[in-house]
Specification:
By secondary structure, the chain is α/β, with parallel strands linked by helices. The protein is built from 14 helices and five strands. A five-stranded parallel sheet has the order 2-3-4-1-5, with helices on both faces. It starts with 7 loop residues before the first helix and ends in a 9-residue tail after the last helix. 35% of the residues are buried. InterPro entries: DNA_Rep/Repair_Clamp_Loader, P-loop_NTPase. This is DNA polymerase III subunit delta.
Length: 318
């Protein structure tokens, strides 16, 4: 189990609330991905329902995350086979959860629903969840894990208390990489640390996905642009012809982190270009799971945004 040094304040707020007379029923766990928010949610839920250490899967802790893509993938899951995930949390999952909430908790008087990532709910799923947040069943608590809280409906945010999870320092991430991946090559370790952007998850994903080549090309695009489109083609090849959801998320997070890394030392005009590129990358990352983008064209768009931030003359078609 990872000991997260950035959870101290969140635990203080959570336990203070637990000791109060009226525990808030809705919580948003907000922060960049890879900061241990889901681990916090599971541990906090276990405290709330009083789960014994010997109970691995507590019946009063419900987890909603990506389900199977379709009926075919659902059959694969039922058969114990690998299955393709949906791109969002669907209204059918919220409806199923709400049906379960019509019964009493199994082992006590409290129940916890964890949604992760809550910012990837379908719009109608968000509207359905809002009804539960407006009139929560007695003893029911909601933990919404989110990397992009602005993507949640304002009405959902207004009904929840927010716990914010700060970024990790480079020194903290270095120690945690040594604990989680002690045999990694030193050069790859340093590359992962440089691209982490304050997130242990980003650093470990960098190693797992082998993103060194993609990171190098992104840095070259940011530094020199790409007048001949050569680097964008190389980036598309490094990303791969059929990247899965996890790899695409890692690519977007890497690009955003490298753009943010350039900001402090950039002159005013370039800072504005970097901020514009970062915002466009965030927007594109939210659209990519929903729309059926061609992977090659998506890589070209990412490369164009980075090249534009370098001062390239062409405008990205985003």
């Amino acid at each position: 189990m990872i000991d997260w040094p950035n959870h101290t304040e969140a635990w203080r707020e959570w336990r203070d609330a637990m000791q109060g007379s009226r525990m808030h029923h809705g919580w948003i766990l907000a922060g960049k991905s890879g900061l241990g928010k889901h681990a916090f949610a599971e541990a906090a839920a276990r405290e709330l329902v009083g789960a014994a250490p010997s109970v691995e899967h507590h019946p009063d802790i419900l987890l909603l995350t990506y389900g199977p893509k379709d009926e075919k993938e659902e059959r694969k899951r039922a058969d114990g086979k690998e299955f393709e995930l949906a791109r969002s949390i669907r209204i059918s999952q919220i409806r199923e959860m709400q049906h379960r909430l019509t019964t009493r908790p199994t082992l006590g008087d409290r129940r916890v629903v964890i949604l992760n990532p809550a910012d990837d709910m379908e719009r109608n799923a968000s509207n359905a969840l809002l009804k539960s947040l407006e009139e929560p069943p007695k003893g029911t608590f909601f933990l919404l894990v989110t990397h992009r809280p602005a993507q949640l409906l304002p009405t959902i945010r207004s009904r929840c208390r927010i716990l914010r999870f700060p970024l990790l320092s480079d020194e903290q991430i270095a120690l945690m990489i040594d604990q989680e991946a002690p045999l990694v090559d030193p050069a790859r370790r340093e590359a992962a640390l440089a691209a982490a952007g304050g997130s242990l998850g980003s650093a470990l994903t960098f190693l797992e996905q082998d993103l060194s080549e993609a990171a190098s090309l992104m840095r070259r695009l940011l530094a020199d642009g790409d007048a001949g489109f050569e680097k964008r083609g190389q980036l598309a090849k490094a990303i791969g012809a059929r990247p899965d959801k996890q790899r695409l998320r890692a690519i977007f997070e890497l690009a955003q982190s490298l753009v943010a890394e350039e900001l402090p030392n950039a002159h005013r005009q370039r800072q504005l270009a970097l901020i514009e590129a970062h915002a466009a990358l965030v927007k594109l990352s939210t659209q990519a799971p929903t729309f059926n983008f061609d992977a090659g064209l998506l890589a070209q768009e990412i490369g164009s945004l980075l090249a534009r931030a370098a001062g390239a003359s062409e405008r990205a078609n985003v």
